[in-house]
Design a protein that fits this description.
The chain is an alpha/beta fold. The protein has 6 helices and 5 strands. A 5-stranded mixed sheet has the order 1-5-3-4-2.
Length: 198
């Protein structure tokens, strides 16, 4: 009987915790495309990227026609009327798109404080670092002379699709981590509100 009572208390606490977490979850304001000229890149970010990195991203944007991984931005009025968003994560992609005069970029728009933006950026850097390390260890199929032309085509197709598959894998990781970040940001906001009201 005592074990059943303890189990019920744990379940009640778990349900209560789940409801609190759900009510605190930060949701993005928008997910879609914004005009590239509307996105400001903080000056501290512009110098971080090598010319080679920007050139690689420009080639990727030209090949695919758009950024497959949405940037994370927040609304701001710190840069004047034209630039309505500040890039939190993806400044390198934004810089490459601006150099190409691309019209629009895919973004997730959030309302964030400076602390939340810094935490989000750090989390995204960790995620992307893991994903890039994973992609480095994937073996690249070598083309060899095979009796079947179909096998050669499959190898070529695999080689061409691998970067797209890697981008999709990274996008999935990012979406999962965005949910985690939204939860963390919501909890931080709730804690701050409780502290402020105390």
């Amino acid at each position: 009987m005592k074990l059943l009572k303890e189990f019920k208390e744990v379940m009640d606490k778990s349900e209560r915790d789940a409801r609190i977490i759900e009510s605190l979850r930060i949701r993005p304001l928008n997910h879609g495309q914004v005009y590239t000229f509307q996105v400001a890149i903080p000056a501290s970010e512009v110098e971080k990227f090598s010319a080679k990195r920007i050139e690689t991203l420009k080639q990727n944007l030209l090949q695919k026609g758009s950024n497959l991984m949405p940037l994370i931005v927040r609304r701001t009025d710190a840069y004047g009327e034209e630039e309505q968003f500040e890039v939190i994560y993806g400044a390198d992609w934004c810089l490459a798109a601006k150099e190409l005069d691309m019209e629009k970029l895919w973004v997730w728009v959030f309302d964030m404080t400076d602390d939340e933006a810094a935490a989000t950026k750090e989390e995204m850097n960790d995620i992307i670092g893991i994903a890039e390390a994973k992609s480095l260890y994937q073996p690249s199929p070598e083309i060899s002379i095979i009796d079947s032309p179909q096998a050669n085509i499959e190898i070529l197709l695999d080689r061409r699709l691998q970067p797209v598959i890697t981008d999709i894998d990274v996008s999935c990781l990012i979406l999962l981590q965005l949910q985690r970040i939204m939860l963390i940001l919501r909890i931080m906001k709730e804690g701050w509100m409780n502290w402020k009201n105390a």
